[in-house]
Design brief:
Shape: globular
Structural class: alpha+beta
Radius of gyration: 17 Å
Order of helices and strands: EHEEHEEHEHEEE
Helix content: 25-40%
Oligomer: single chain
Largest sheet: 5 strands, antiparallel
Low-confidence stretches: none
Strand content: 25-35%
Number of helices: 4
Distance between the termini: 27 Å
Mean pLDDT: 92
Length: 188
């Protein structure tokens, strides 16, 4: 199973971000981008990759402990950026230090459960909005259009374990389907 740990924003925050992102779809070249489906919007904390189902009980236990040791925190969507001209993302502000600690705890939980985390990268809080598979889009223009966006604050109150079900190969525009396998309240 292809798994990751995430913070899932509440629907009100998602709706607010969707309203800010909607005008980007009218920018030149927007039709060549692969836009992330709104239902898939999340903040990845730690990507685990392919995980043997036999590892799940230990991973559940470890992630539950990680959630218990980390309290809830306030976040808001703010600004945007790009990764290497290939991905457009919405940023976050507010409780970034506790969010980074939660990301580190989720990675440590996976390591202790026996998941190889050697390719773990430094954590950058972001929510992927679109990808440019061609490298031809002017993603900085899209990021600039969201630079002044600042959403209302909300509480990140749980750690979620999410399964990524990859789309059928060769289906144009197909996207992964995400399903939450488990969630733990933070700090409880």
């Amino acid at each position: 199973m292809r798994l990751f740990a995430a913070v899932l924003p509440p629907e009100a925050a998602i709706a607010e971000l969707a309203t800010a992102v909607a005008p980007l779809h009218d920018l030149p070249g927007a039709d060549r981008l692969t836009w992330t489906a709104r239902a898939n919007w999340h903040f990845t904390l730690a990507f685990f990759g392919e995980v043997d189902p036999d590892t799940l009980p230990e991973l559940y236990t470890r992630l539950g402990r990680a959630a218990h040791r980390n309290g809830d925190f306030q976040l808001r969507f703010q600004g945007a950026g790009t990764f290497g001209g290939r991905a457009l993302w919405a940023g976050a502000s507010g409780g970034l230090p506790p969010m980074r600690r939660l990301a580190d705890s989720a990675s440590a939980a996976a390591r202790r459960a026996g998941i190889d985390m050697t390719e773990h990268r430094a954590y950058t809080p972001h929510l992927t909005l679109a990808r440019d598979r061609t490298g031809a889009a002017d993603l900085p223009r899209y990021a600039a259009a969201l630079a002044d966006f600042e959403g209302h604050p909300w509480r990140a109150a749980q750690l979620s374990l999410v399964r990524s079900n990859l789309p059928e190969p060769g289906v144009p525009g197909a996207q992964p389907r995400y399903e939450t396998l488990a969630a733990w309240p933070l700090g409880e």
